[in-house]
Amino acid sequence: MTHFVRFSGGSQRLIAACVLFIFLACQTAAAATYPATVLPSWNDSATKSKIIDFVQKVTDEGGAEYVKPEERIAVFDNDGTLWTEQPAYVQLVYLIDRIKTLAPQHPEWKTRQPFKGILENDMRAVAATGNVGLMEIEHAADAGLTTDEFKQNVTKWLDTARDPRFRRPYTELVYQPMLELLSYLRANGFKTYIVSGGGTDFMRPWAEKTYGIPPEQVIGSTDKVKFEIDKNGHAQLIKQGVINFIDDGDSKPVAINRYIGRMPLLAFGNSDGDLPMLQYVSSGTVPNLVLYLHHDDAGREYAYDRKSSFGKLDKGLDEATKKGWPVVSMKSDWKTVFPEPQAK
Amino acid sequence: MTHFVRFSGGSQRLIAACVLFIFLACQTAAAATYPATVLPSWNDSATKSKIIDFVQKVTDEGGAEYVKPEERIAVFDNDGTLWTEQPAYVQLVYLIDRIKTLAPQHPEWKTRQPFKGILENDMRAVAATGNVGLMEIEHAADAGLTTDEFKQNVTKWLDTARDPRFRRPYTELVYQPMLELLSYLRANGFKTYIVSGGGTDFMRPWAEKTYGIPPEQVIGSTDKVKFEIDKNGHAQLIKQGVINFIDDGDSKPVAINRYIGRMPLLAFGNSDGDLPMLQYVSSGTVPNLVLYLHHDDAGREYAYDRKSSFGKLDKGLDEATKKGWPVVSMKSDWKTVFPEPQAK
């Protein structure tokens, strides 16, 4: 009874064609649930589906995994996740340029590291001074500025500074697919946050215009600042040029708790500095999606693959694979990397 | 020609009556611009007018002092500004109760200050141990708890704890006129923040339900916390019971810059711990309104007048008068102080 009908070769081909047709129709139907306007710079990959499925799930009011809008928090690393971090962190380039600008007033820097190294473009000598050197640079660059003056300096610098490879303003070397993801999440009621090792004060002057992320949703490393009333009775905050908090590694989940106080639903990072934040979010009792950006596109951006920007082996990629966090391949998941240059 | 018409006595009275009528009509017209539903628990005083005028001014799109919604930030102290801080800070009462709860596991506390003082209700002895004692209490009460456990403890405690004078839950000893002001500001596009010396972790579990202020808009003092992955691979944050940042005095403007990064338009405080925050906001280049709550109502709440809760002379009241910041009198500006008791 198992073979009560026998097909001819022609019928078999017909059936195979029908099966294929049904299969393709289903594929099309599945794809059709995502309008072309959603994440247009993302290829129609499993990663894109996972993002959209997750957002649909937590915003589906009748669904089991529905999350109220006020609890929809998404956190993003900045350097290497929202904008390029190669060949050097943009903030480091800013500091170097600032030291060069101030150098004429400091003849003693010609013979003193790490300043000598900066003035002679000898980055090996600068790196050799380690964290102590970095702190001296920070202090020399910013101590004594009011928070307003610092903001103006950053804004002015970004207006003219250009990336050496792409010859574009740094604020144009942000990732177009990530800009779309930020907008898509906000359109679905999410509050989008930056949680970055970069300086809070350095990111805020441009994050709103560039990412649509307002100052109060930018969390980063902070300096000590001092409250002062000047001789005209005007209250102001003076940067001390001394680090208060480094928002990297284990400090990222600490900062999420300290600043936000809710468990995010979505976290996106790209390096070991983000790993604790990703582990934290993936341990939440709320539905969550944790994503890991893989820099594997030397042609359009950079391929540092399994090495973080400091040349250390990246553990995050292993953990992502182990935990099943979607690893976003810049090369295969993204149609474009950077946005179109802005008209002048 | 100056006296071409001479009035009889009757005519003069008629004119006086007309003038009075017009005057009253104008008064009524002015009052009519504020519907009765706006700040209903506030008396129709100059203070109320200043608040409403300010909000109308910064939300008037055609006006010279219009401020875009995303830039409308208002900051409020908590203890003594949004809820009662007498006879002791609520958080201190929590800590005392917590020590009493834990005491059976710590027989050594019977002979050791500040614990001995707490167990014997000898607050003078506790106070004598000063900040060092307070830090010991904090450590004994909270060290080792996960942030989630701490949140549960606070929530559970607030459910049963009652204020000794009013016999009500502490979350009902919030000021009704201030609840209305918070709602009124939010209805006009403001983001309302708490900037308090109290613990961030202590306020967040109830601030959203009580004030409509979400966790990410609660800024306070913070503890050190440690990121940890437990033996089940679950990431969590452990409170160290050690103070990280005290959000009081000069630290309040520092916190506003660190957490919010925009200059608030409105600030409301009630003590010298708030003064730098008020000075900072009043120095902003954006339109601003700075208010000072004066506790002068012993019958309905407390009258500590020119003395802050620690018995020091209050400089803020002088500065408010000097700078023309509206001083809100609890006694004469507020129709009611506390909200109606909630139905069980």
TrEMBL record, chains A, B:
<keyword id="KW-0732">Signal</keyword>
<protein>
    <submittedName>
        <fullName>Haloacid dehalogenase-like hydrolase</fullName>
    </submittedName>
</protein>
<feature type="signal peptide">
    <location>
        <begin position="1"/>
        <end position="31"/>
    </location>
</feature>
<dbReference type="InterPro" id="IPR050582">
    <property type="entry name" value="HAD-like_SerB"/>
</dbReference>
<dbReference type="Pfam" id="PF12710">
    <property type="entry name" value="HAD"/>
</dbReference>
